[in-house]
Automatic annotation (TrEMBL):
Domain P/Homo B span(s) in chain numbering: 373-500
Keyword check for Signal: yes
Record's protein name: P/Homo B domain-containing protein
Organism of origin: Sinanodonta woodiana (Chinese pond mussel)
Protein family according to the UniProt entry: Belongs to the peptidase S8 family.
GO molecular function, one term: serine-type endopeptidase activity
Location of the active site: D87, H124, S296
Signal peptide: 1-21
Matches recorded under Pfam families: P_proprotein, Peptidase_S8
């Protein structure tokens, strides 16, 4: 299988940049702070790298912050939490990592041995590991987000490619020990629909049901670097409900140029960009990297933040972690020239390339520490609508009404299982509009697939309706902007809870409230309302629709009975073994394969 490392740019490994002040060596971290040896954490100062100049500012001057230092200040450092990093190999003897590498637990699924050191000198896995757990106060490289967590190195990716079996073993490696599996890899960007194999599906389901003593393994996943001309919903790893998709933010407050359109992504973290600022980390040969960019690097930052949260509350289950991210990630004033924020029906701001916004480590650990497990998950399948319509440039809309037979009142994930055909697969656009009016961009144009014909059934996933009540009319619009296609049939698979998952939490998503307003609970979502006003919003309503249930009031079922029946759509992804290193300008193939060079439309 083609599985790519999701970083952008030509990676060079330079020695660390050091800043000298008071004769002490200061080290970068990717909270954009510099760690000064021999100084207490209170003295950690913020830093941005500006071109080749160093600008030192007080922490907090950089906005918005991921609040990692604030989480450290609350006493969290990842101690007791184990992260399996599934990647291309690890320098387990790197002196900025070795104290946190979990010796005896690593594995190399390429060579089938216990040494994950990459014989080929690859250093992507070493770079990802440093962002999570590089050591603090040791005069080297950087400080990881969870600098006292343990890392298990799982070598999966090599020029020989992967198999479903290798991937599944990697994703279930040391399941009773590993809390988080951090994944900065995936299908080739830009074209094709690439699903997880059946063994990976079983590994993910097995992880969330039996990992962490039944609370569920946490799988973080790089959302992909296909830019806005790719859509992560063609990536079966990111669009699984069991994985936490992470996109990248540019330091100027816009999505990183390589971030994809991704209704399945939960949140964003800084990922580095050559146009603004890079991230720094450890690199192979005991060196440091200072030029990292890609969702590959946002994902370990998210894994580190989740590790801090699991230290704050080891009882969090896999859905608690996702709820925490939805609750605490923030919109700030982040903008995008291509897509807008929407206030969804649960009063949560969502963005097609940034999910619920920038992760906030301080809020994650604060809410985690007093968290009550969310109610059990229920799922609901609508009946199938079969319009069997021709679709052209003007598009076809088709609706499914969810009635009171659906007991879910607070949505989590929404899946659309669609059977379709297109003469120009890359011209397909799919938009799902919920009863609350929130739009999910389930598929957007992908120019590398313009000439590919495809047909089949595919499951698209969105988290953008999180917290909404599902009762009412859902509309799927399919457009084939050039050439043509058919919408054969579709159905909705809904996941969520029957009762308020956050009954004791009252947070305004429009914060702070203006003078004269107060933060008032509105089921899942909370909003600022005018205290003197007699009317409150009815956007989120627990009143069930008067529409008749279209599937005869089917009872709620548990998640484990629902598995994806996704099948690959023909076109695009070639079989073969390649690692693709995506540069700003072109895909560089490091080995044989039939991958199509990617020519980005921007940058
Ligand atoms: C840190 O403090 C120790 C003990 O005082 C000293 O030996 C060491 O040189 C200091 N390191 C730096 C980088 O200043
Ligand atoms: C990390 O956190 C643990 C648990 O709170 C604490 O015991 C330990 O001292 C911390 N270690 C460092 C280096 O901060
Ligand atoms: C590693 O083990 C897998 C599964 O048993 C096998 O398919 C593969 O050929 C082995 N690889 C090597 C290099 O021995
Ligand atoms: C699609 O086909 C047209 C016409 O043959 C060609 O000009 C274009 O380069 C092709 N696009 C891709 C992405 O292969
Ligand atoms: C809130 O109520 C006050 C007093 O009635 C009114 O002047 C103000 O315009 C209201 N603000 C909003 C946002 O509705
Ligand atoms: Ca080896
Ligand atoms: Ca260090
Ligand atoms: Ca992609």
């Amino acid at each position: 299988m083609i599985r790519c490392l999701l970083y952008v740019g030509v990676i060079s490994t330079l020695t660390c940049f050091y800043i000298y002040c008071d004769d002490q060596i200061h080290h970068y971290t990717n909270q954009f702070v510099v760690w000064c040896d021999n100084e207490s954490s209170e003295d950690i100062i913020a830093e941005w790298r500006l071109s080749e100049q160093f600008t030192i500012e007080k922490n907090g001057a950089i906005a918005p912050s991921m609040k990692i230092q604030e989480a450290w200040n609350l006493g969290y450092n990842g101690s007791g939490v184990t992260i399996a990093v599934v990647d291309d190999g690890f320098e387990i003897t790197h002196t900025d990592l070795d104290a946190n590498m979990y010796s005896g637990y690593h594995y190399d699924y390429v060579d089938n041995d216990t040494n994950p050191d990459p014989a080929d000198g690859n250093d992507h896995g070493t770079m990802c590991s440093g962002l999570i757990a590089a050591e603090a106060n040791n005069n080297e490289c950087v400080v990881g987000v969870a600098y006292r967590a343990k890392v298990i190195g799982v070598r999966l990716l090599a020029s020989s490619g992967t198999t479903d079996l290798m991937e599944s073993r990697s994703l279930s490696h040391q399941r009773s020990i590993a809390d988080i599996y951090s994944n900065s890899w995936g299908p080739q960007d830009g074209s094709g629909y690439s699903d997880t194999g059946s063994l990976v599906k079983a590994a993910l389901l097995g992880g969330i049901t039996s990992g962490r003593s039944g609370k569920g393994s946490i799988f973080t996943w790089a959302a992909g670097n296909g830019q806005k001309s790719d859509n992560c919903n063609a990536d079966g790893y990111v669009n699984s409900i069991y994985t936490i998709g992470v996109t990248s933010l540019d330091s100027t407050g816009i999505p990183a140029f390589y971030s994809e359109v991704c209704a399945a992504a939960m949140a964003t973290t800084y990922g580095g960009t050559y146009t603004s600022r890079y991230l720094h980390s450890t690199a192979y040969s005991r060196s440091c990297a200072n030029d990292l960019q890609g969702t590959s690097f946002s994902t370990p930052v998210a894994s580190g933040i989740i590790a801090l949260s699991l230290q704050a509350n080891p009882n969090l289950n896999w859905r608690d972690v996702q709820h925490l991210i939805v609750l605490t990630s923030k919109k700030y004033t982040l903008t995008d020239s291509y897509y807008s924020w929407q206030l969804n029906g649960a009063k949560k701001y969502v963005h097609p390339r940034l999910g619920f916004g920038l992760m906030d480590a301080e809020d994650m650990v604060r809410y985690a520490s007093t968290w009550t497990q969310v109610p059990s998950q229920v799922s609901f399948q609508s009946s199938t609508s079969s319009p069997n319509s021709y679709v052209g440039a003007s598009g076809v809309s088709n609706s499914i009404t969810i009635g009171s037979g659906c007991s879910i009142q607070y949505l989590e994930h929404v899946q659309v299982q669609l059977s379709f055909q297109a003469d120009g697969l890359g011209y397909v656009e799919l938009t799902l509009t919920s009863p609350s009016g929130t739009k999910s961009f389930l598929m957007t144009q992908r120019y590398l697939d313009y000439n590919n014909t495809g047909s089949g059934t595919w499951t698209f996933m969105t988290v953008q309706h999180w917290g909404e009540a599902p009762q009412g009319q859902w509309t799927l619009k399919m457009v084939v902007a050039a050439l043509s296609g058919r919408l054969y049939s579709w159905k909705l698979i809904l996941y969520g809870t029957q009762t308020d998952p956050l009954p004791n939490i009252n947070v305004c998503s429009v914060n702070p409230c203006a003078s004269g307003q107060t933060c008032t609970g509105n089921n899942y979502g909370y909003e600022c309302i005018n205290v003197t006003s007699t009317t409150t919003s009815t956007t989120v309503s627990t009143t069930t629709s008067t529409n008749a249930p279209i599937n005869g009031g089917m009872a709620a079922t548990t998640v484990s009975s629902t598995t994806s029946t996704t099948a690959a759509i023909a076109g695009g992804v070639a079989a073969g073994a390649v690692l693709v290193f995506v540069s700003v300008a072109i895909v560089i193939k490091l080995s044989v394969g039939k991958a199509t060079p990617v020519v980005p439309v921007t940058a």
